[in-house]
Description:
The protein has one helix spanning 2-19, and strands at 36-53, 62-65, 67-78, 83-87, 90-99, 110-127, 134-147, 168-181, 186-196, 215-229. By secondary structure, the chain is mainly beta. The protein has a single domain (2-229), classed as Beta Barrel (Porin), CATH 2.40.160.20. Strands 1, 2, 3, 4, 5, 6, 7, 8, 9 and 10 form a ten-stranded antiparallel sheet that branches. The longest helix has 18 residues, at 2-19.
Amino acid sequence: MKKIIFLLISTSTFAQFGIFGKDPIINKENFDKQRVHWGYYLGASVLDFKVDYLGLKQEEINVESTTGFNVGLISNLRITEHLDLRFEPGLYITQRNLTFPNIIEQKDRLREVKSTYIYFPLLAKFSATRTGNIKPYLIGGYATALNLSSNETAPVDNYEGRFRMTKWNNFIEIGFGIDLYFEYFKFSPSIRGVFGLNDELIRDNNPSSPWTSDVQQMKTRGIFINFAFH
């Protein structure tokens, strides 16, 4: 993940001080004047859970994040010179490993939570004034997502090794990025924070389950790094 962030910063620095000099040739000068334009993105994500507990002295669940993969499409509607409305549906594949320290049996302590989200964000993009071939922006909005790996309707639970989550979930997404204008395309790297709004945990059938009984709520949070091409 650190390498990805370093690549993002290096790309922006190279664009500013390398290929875009003091008096650059203005690339794709009228691109942003289009009422509607399209694109796609590739990226990476690191998600974990924010866990709140019912008791005051419960042992915390250890959440280990892994780097996931993102891919999706972009539809951009120009509202004003500095404001765009964007719909960026995508596929987000990730995994979080949960360790439950209060479980006696070693083999039952680990749950690998694999998630495949069909992600539907509606975002507002606030852009600064373009300088040469560079234009920074802020982006944020609301998203809903379908978790294809939720196991929500599965009749078995953690007693049979099945960790269950809700199928539909809601998120707030906020971040920043930079538009870099090249001769034939616009490249837009960005970093976004994502924050779950609803409890995603499906409790086990046994109310005294050592996996779920002490959890008040479990919400997704994390970072998306997207590389967009228009």
